């Protein structure tokens, strides 16, 4: 008796459906990661903004300590000096430095500032825990795009 064993040669590749499912899963994962990456970049720029304003605040306090008053103007990208003394080599600029993404300095009574001075920046992360309680729409549009962050004299 002769037993015949038949072996069918079956291709070991993936079906079109399997490939489409894998491509769809990769697409969904990359979209989620990209959205998270954009949020990380915004939070990093916001951290830089807050650190910049605190550095400017320190320079302003040194200025006041020496001269008994605050300067009338502070310009981003330029040095903060008086009488041959340099308080800050170069006042920082906003990481984006365009549109509403600029630093603003106001002295008491100017632009709604009720303190000796106010430093304003617009944060991109509207959920930031350190943002202003109410948005200052003079400097930032508010809503879901940005929110004001203010540093005043201590």
Protein architecture, described:
With 154 residues, the protein is an alpha+beta fold. It has one domain. 34% of the residues lie in helices and 16% in strands. The chain has a three-stranded antiparallel sheet with strand order 3-4-5, with helices on one face. A two-stranded antiparallel ribbon has the order 1-2. A hairpin with a 2-residue loop joins β1 (80-82) and β2. The longest helix has 52 residues, at 16-67. The chain is elongated. The N and C termini lie far apart (102 Å). The mean pLDDT is 89.
Q: Quick check: average pLDDT?
A: 89
- What's the main sheet like? 3 strands, antiparallel
What's the assembly state of these chains? single chain
Number of E-state strands: 5
Helix content: 25-40%
Query: In sequence order, what are the helices and strands, one letter per element?
Result: HEEEEE
Cα-based radius of gyration, to the nearest Å:
28 Å
Q: In what order do the strands lie side by side in the largest sheet? A: 3-4-5
- Please indicate the count of domains: 1
Q: SS-based structural class?
A: alpha+beta
Beta-strand percentage range: 15-25%
- Uncertain segments are none
Cα shape: elongated
Q: What is the count of helical runs?
A: 1
What is the terminal-to-terminal distance? 102 Å
